[in-house]
Amino acid sequence: MRPTAVAFVLALVACTPRPCAAQEFARAEAFGGYAFARDDDRNMHGWNGAVTLNLRRWLGVSADVSGQYVALGATDRARFAVLAGPRVSPWRGRFTTFAYALAGAFHTRSTLEFLSVSVSEGETDPGAALGGGVDVRVSGRWAAEVKADAALIRSRGRTDSNPRVFGGLVVQFGGQQ
Amino acid sequence: MRRIAVLLSTAAALLTPTPTSAQQSPFSTLITTPLTIEGLTTDGRSLYTTGRGADGPCPVWQINLGAPSLVVVGLIPNPCSPSGLVFNSSGQLFTVDGERVYSLTPSAASPPTATVFASGVPGANGIAFDRSGNAWTGDGTTGQGRVWRIDRQGSVTEVFRVPPIAIETTVAGGVGRDVRTLPPGTVAVTPTTRNAADTAGSQPLVANGLIFDRRGDLFIADTARGAIWRVEMDNRGNVASHTGCDDAYAPNTLCLEHIFVAHPLLEGVDGIVFDDAGNLWCSVNERNAIVVVTPGGRVIEVFRNSRDRTTGLRNTGPLETPTSPVVIGKTICTANSDGNRRDNFPNTAGEITPVGPARGKISCARQR
Q1: Is a pLDDT exceeding 50 seen at residue A3?
Q2: Which domains can be identified in chain A, with CATH numbers?
Q3: What is the pLDDT of residues B90-110, one digit of tens each?
Q4: Contact check, Cβ <8 Å, A73/B292
Q5: Would the CB atoms of B302 and A114 count as touching at under 8 Å?
Q6: What is the four-CA torsion angle of B129, B133, B134, B136, rounded to 10 degrees?
Q7: Which of A70, A115, A160 to mutate to probe the B interface, most B CBs <10 Å?
Q8: Minimal Cα–Cα distance from A32 to chain B, Å?
């Protein structure tokens, strides 16, 4: 049994595509950068991080977290999102375009401080993000990325659509063209 | 050693803040007015209010927040006792008075006399505009709870009713409750009873201040119940909330499920306004208090006059019947009308009095 297992592992290793050989896409990509969002007529600024596991040359699965902040008079508001879903990249090259459809949850936390009153209130709502963007390879494993989407948030019986724009750097793991 | 201890305790006593500075009110008077005022609004830069009960036309005043003074920017024809006022999206100022709605375009150089925009809204008190440019007002102290929509042409339609405190039936005087405010009402306090000693102080007002939120839903201050109603609107501005749950009321009466919050802190709630974050700020006139309702429905008292230790009353200010709030950034201001009831009774105390020279004022507080 043991020799069989060893043989199986060796076969698996031997058959696994090597990074520098015929691999045409990275196994995984990590994005980090700036995030901008509109909430009604208000501008929010913050951060975004995402990890994509590429299952095929054209198909990956992304997990995405972000946070944006705004001061509204005596209230500080933060909105966090945890989303996941498919990401497709029909064309790969120096410029790689992609589109994604993510679903998950949005958590909005508001903290009002006025005179001696300090009250914090949070609300978690289901939501989704539909969008796309482009990667521009900078060098080696590094690329610059811009993306934009519409965040659809279902809150108190209604669905609000909020545009978001992101910009940052991508580092690729596991394989190179 | 003992001398050092004495010196230390003396120094500590000198450095301890005095009770006066520790109890300093966060609300201060921005400006007083020679006439009583009730409504208050803003164009984002200045405050606007109207004098009531003038011998001639009632003035519309503009007050600069940075350098406050009363600048007349319009006039309401006599006889007049205007209450709520608000700008529409075109910069035209609307105010309600009796059963009329007046409009004018403010001008300091040549103050115009307001013209009648609409009539047939008896008791009109608060006023607000929806996203389609329609004005909405409620019937105030008439206490029937009627809420009207007034289109751009000034045509008036009764859209729905807030349930009145008492239902009109075959029983003389109706069935329900009579909320009474003490003073001016009084009760006969004995060891065994607290029954009414008179009929004064009845508070039937259920459709007072109103305001739309960012989503287009209408919020209404229910003074008698100490409640805020939320009336949902569809995308076309029509009422989506349920009416007609109880056939004892008029068929267009809101169902009770549309009360957003009801809380003792809101007893006597008058004017209401949203800040940018969706918090609803309330001038609670009968309690000389400012209360905020969060988007999630939490009710928090931001400020209430402290009680005078000698008289046991809260009528010396800084708030003296706060009626209408305005939020500009981190500053909240409220008009004060110096009513002679509940917490502000007797209204002869405080900075403003019925005989003047100051009969109304605007108080502000700023978060630092």
Answers
A1: no
A2: 26-173 (2.40.160.20)
A3: 999 999 999 999 999 999 999
A4: no
A5: yes
A6: 0
A7: A115
A8: 28
Tell me if chain B has a CB within 8 Å of the CB of A112. yes
- Give tens-digit pLDDT for A58-114: 999 999 999 999 999 999 999 999 999 999 999 888 999 999 999 999 999 999 999
Give the CB-side neighbour count of residue B167, counting CA atoms within 13 A.
Answer: 12
pTM of the predicted structure, to 2 decimals: 0.88
CA distance B218 to A48: 36
Residue A123 touches chain B, beta carbons under 8 Å: yes
Chain B interface includes A140 (CB < 8 A): no
Q: Copy the structure tokens of residue B266.
A: 């809101």
Which DSSP category does B18 fall into?
Answer: P
Mutate to test the interface with B, among A114, A125, A153, A155 (most CBs of B within 10 A): A114
Residues in contact with B314: Cβ distance below 8 Å, sequence separation at least 6, in sequence order: B288, B304, B305, B306, B307, B308, B343, B344
A101-116 confidence digits (pLDDT tens): 999 999 999 999 999 8
Beta bridge pairs of residue B29: B363
The string of DSSP letters for B193-257 reads EEEESSSTTB----S--EEE-TTS-EEEEETTTTEEEEE-B-TTS-B-S-B-S-TTS-TTBBPGG
Query: Mutate which of B42, B291, B294, B364 to test chain A, going by most A C-beta atoms within 10 A?
Result: B294
Domains and CATH numbers, chain B: 25-166+201-366 (2.120.10.30)
Distance CA B347, CA B313 (A): 11
Nearest to B330 among A74, A119, A121 (CB): A74
CB contact under 8 A, A112 and B295: no
